[in-house]
């Protein structure tokens, strides 16, 4: 079941023109959100922020604006069936909304953390926009799995850590949370924005580049996105001729502050 161009469709296939730019070039923008309590109005769902991010990219690219009321209608039709929605917009303004379940092992990952691999050879296209050309991030995560890791960490040309293949990074040291700045060339995550505003009420937070020699100073690190919320990273694998493992505390008390945002 999915929603496409104003219609609810019960099928596992989608018919689109063979010359559709979204098919040929990945020319789409999308956002993925978790719907809390089956409500678009719930603060944690943050519906308007997801729509605003889509609008920003669409206007930047000069594409046709979609029918926002139609998108909301499609989301409402799928909410009773799926806790997670992915909204894709094509250059002509057509919308495609897919639903899915939460990851089966999400609770364990949130509790115990995951292992990550530094994917030095992969870089996202147009990193400040969430476009359908997500091949490099997808390949980075596949490569990470070949190194027994669940996530990939993307870096810039100098080796500075930017973000994971699916989320934004957080690090704790000196009684302060640190996250890479948007100017580094990362996705402006909706969950990242929510967490920034939340953290500022309780402790210091700094948006600074994660230089290669600074990541060793963090006591705890985690990544966030709108679906998984906050997941600690307990081990990071790097390869510079030899394999290097960095370890962090997935049970660090500072992580409680990030998680408290999602206590609904």
TrEMBL record:
Species of origin: Gloeocapsopsis crepidinum LEGE 06123
Entry keyword set: Aminotransferase, Transferase
Record Pfam families: Aminotran_4
Name used for this protein in its record: Aminotransferase class IV
Protein family (similarity comment): Belongs to the class-IV pyridoxal-phosphate-dependent aminotransferase family.
Molecular function in Gene Ontology: transaminase activity
Zinc among keywords: no
InterPro entries (alphabetical): Aminotrans_IV, Aminotransferase-like, BCAT-like_C, BCAT-like_N, Class-IV_PLP-Dep_Aminotrnsfr
UniProt entry tagged with the keyword Signal: no
Source superkingdom: Bacteria
């Amino acid at each position: 079941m999915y929603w496409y161009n104003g219609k609810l469709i019960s099928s596992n296939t989608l018919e689109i023109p063979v010359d559709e730019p979204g098919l040929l070039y990945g020319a789409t923008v999308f956002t993925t959100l978790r719907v809390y309590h089956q409500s678009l109005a719930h603060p944690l769902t943050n519906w308007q922020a997801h729509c605003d991010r889509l609008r920003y990219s669409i206007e930047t690219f000069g594409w046709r604006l979609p029918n926002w009321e139609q998108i909301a209608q499609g989301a409402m039709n799928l909410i009773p069936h799926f806790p997670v929605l992915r909204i894709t917009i094509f250059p002509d303004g057509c919308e495609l909304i897919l639903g899915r379940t939460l990851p089966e092992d999400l609770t364990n990952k949130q509790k115990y953390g995951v292992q990550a691999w530094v994917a030095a050879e992969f870089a996202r296209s147009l990193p400040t926009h969430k476009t359908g050309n997500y091949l490099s991030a997808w390949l980075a995560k596949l490569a990470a799995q070949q190194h027994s890791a669940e996530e990939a960490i993307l870096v810039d040309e100098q080796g500075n850590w930017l973000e994971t293949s699916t989320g934004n990074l957080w690090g704790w040291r000196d009684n302060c949370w640190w996250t890479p700045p948007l100017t580094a060339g990362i996705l402006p995550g909706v969950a990242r924005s929510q967490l920034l505003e939340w953290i500022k009420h309780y402790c210091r937070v700094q948006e600074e580049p994660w230089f290669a020699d600074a990541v060793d100073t963090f006591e705890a690190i985690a990544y966030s996105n709108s679906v998984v919320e906050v997941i600690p990273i307990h081990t990071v694998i790097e390869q510079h001729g030899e394999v290097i493992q960095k370890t962090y505390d997935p049970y660090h008390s500072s992580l409680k502050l990030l998680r408290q945002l999602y206590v609904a």
